[in-house]
Amino acid sequence: MYQKRKRFFAITAICSMLLSNVCAYAAELDMNLYYDGKTHHYKAEEVNIVINGEEMIVTDMPPVILEDRTLVPARDVFETMGAEVAWNAQTKEVYVKKESDVVILKIDDEIGTKNGIAFTMDVPAKIINDRTVIPVRVVSEALGCEVGWDAKKRIVTIEQKQQEIENTVEDEIVDVDINENIDISLDANTDVNNNTNTNNNTNTNNNTNTNNNTNTNNNTNTNNNTNTNDNTNTNDNTNNNTNTNNNTNTNNNTNTNNNTNTNNNTNTNNNTNTNTENNATNVPTQNSKVTNVIVPASASAPQIFTITTSAQIAKYQNVYVDDTRIVLDIYYAEKNLPSDNITVTTSPFVSAIRSAQHDMEGVTVTRVVLDLKAPIKYQLTQSEDKKNLIVSFQESVVQSLTKTSNGTIDTIQITGSAPLTANVSTLSSPNRVIIDIPYATSNLEPNPSVEGLSQILAIRTSMYEEKVARVVLEIKDTAEYDMSQNGNHIIVTVKKSTLENISYDASKKALVLKKVMPFDVNGVIHTDNYLKNQYKVTLPSDFTSVYGYGTMKLPYEGVSSVTVANEGGRTTFSFSESNIRAYTITEDSNNYYINIKNPKEVYSKVVLLDAGHGGNDPGTSGNGMNEKDITLSIVNKAYALLQNTDKVKVYLTRNDDSRPENRHRANTANDIADVLISIHMNSASPNPSPNGTEVLFVTHTNDVQGRLTSQIVATTLLQRTVNALSTNNRGLKYDTQHQKNLILLNSTTVPAVIVETLFLSNPGDALKISNTANHDKMAQAIYDSIIELADKYTWR
Length: 796
Prior knowledge:
There is one protein chain. This protein is mostly beta strands. The protein folds into 5 domains: 19-96 and 125-160, no CATH class; 288-392, Immunoglobulin-like (Sandwich), CATH 2.60.40.3500; 397-420 and 432-489, no CATH class; 502-597, no CATH class; 606-792, 3-Layer(aba) Sandwich (Aminopeptidase). The strands form 16 sheets. Strands 16-27-28-32-31-30 form a 6-stranded antiparallel β-sheet, with no helix packed on it. Strands 56-53-57-60-58-59 form a 6-stranded mixed β-sheet, sandwiched between helices. The relative contact order is 0.06.
């Protein structure tokens, strides 16, 4: 321990000397950063990166700080550390691989993965000025590095951890070949003896000798206080002691000693040691752990699954159960995996990985199961160091494409040499179905004939990427398609739609209705049921004879499809949403257009009101009340008031006892809103004394002087809440670690605040908020604050 501390202080001293050579005062960056579809002016002191004591040379894209997190050019930093960095343009993912660890980050997604296990980031990877930048701390720490931050000098230090050098004795390992049954036994550090050794000697030693060798004795020794050994003993110790033996020992051994151990102990041995083999090798020590399962980086990457252990695998067995799974039992090994169930999204062949530990006649066995999507051949091998089991799959070959039609329904069957997985997307103008088959090569002709088909106008095939086969079906504008997968087959059906005179224009982001029968666009009814993921446009009368009925898939991010139906004598268009969208209707001489837009394209000021907690998350409680109920009451009342003004457009995160994830609330704010206001109640239980109102926020790096900021919103809400409820003003709470740890504050890029209205744990505050009249007062305070902010400040 003392030596380790000396080493640590030495490293620290070296790093300090190296850092002292880095510029003491950082230069200022004044540049434009283009990301998230906008140009942002960035003015801040530059950040220096020091890797293992050496300053990184900055290229065209310097490190930047966004939302208090340092983003760095992926290749510049991590290739310097010896990692491999790769970019997948199709999925917009960056892969960072270092030794056996693979970190995958998707652009603008706060969820990353390490070896298939998900983790959350405060700030996602981004493309800034056409360069991929990623959060330096979370990725470095995921790769086992230590990260430091010198705020004064604005220096990020990254130190790759060095393995402690221990004076351990290496074990001589017996190699065993893998046989066809894949049942391997390997006993390390085990004495296998077919003889009886009886020792009646007294050994007096001034040191302790540790022998970690393999002794294989095939002799029968008959001893009358005489030990005759015709073996070769390999000892990794040098003994500087005096052995006093009262017996006669005849040893014909060869001793090879590599280490020197100096000990001041006395060992006196008067024992009889008897080792006898019982038709098998002795049981190994159960000190191994199954630590990880590494999955492929993507569906088009080599399909290799690696099961890692902390020590050499003494024995494993491939257990056949059925063709839907691969079952591996690893003996003498404890299960130490991050998760018992891993959903695999990066493989055409494996859907999930499950694991469990059980005892088999005193032997600990870890079972790892790979669930297959369909029966498939695979190869199972053991790594050279015997610490890994490797399951690998060969890539599929797309062998044939067959076509049939009954006049109204066309069917395409794509067949491969192994199970196929398809990623399907659509494009318009012309209407196309894109089928990408990962980890596959194509033997198909480039332009198969469409003779005899009624809905498919053309078929094209190609290799989209080196390991991705692509099939494109060009179909009629109103045709509908369905796709299914069955083992080695992908089946696509394209049928004539009951929809007519309808198409989608991707350039306009609009559903186009031919003007066959005119109607007054001012008579169209809009129903926005965004909390149920639906927006409905109702025409003034029944247009079934013009537009028909049915569902049409849409190639629009956030809106998956539109369903045309007749409801109460009126034709309706119901849009299925995953993101909140706004819709307008325009027309020209030939067409009507239902335009799909982000709310910020339609409204000048957008507020997202959030009632904290909900559903199975009651929030805090006190004096017989739950936070989730009070916040919902207040927010619904404020929302009702705000429906009477056209100064702002207001959306809610919930209007009932449901529980949206906080990440979803933050992402929704970033997507569609200018301001996020989240209403909460406070608690200091069991201390009943704290009382009053406080408002939390975090300063954003993209705050612009003269425009609305979190601080302005917080200040306005705090003052109006205190005045409305006559509560104790506890002030603004901001930019401490507590606030920075809150997802609603650390994951938003728009002004965002959390109003802690009062304390449910305080009897006076609780009594006040138990009166629903005060809910009305608080709702009015929220309304008044928003109107004041709309009148006095520029929001964008």
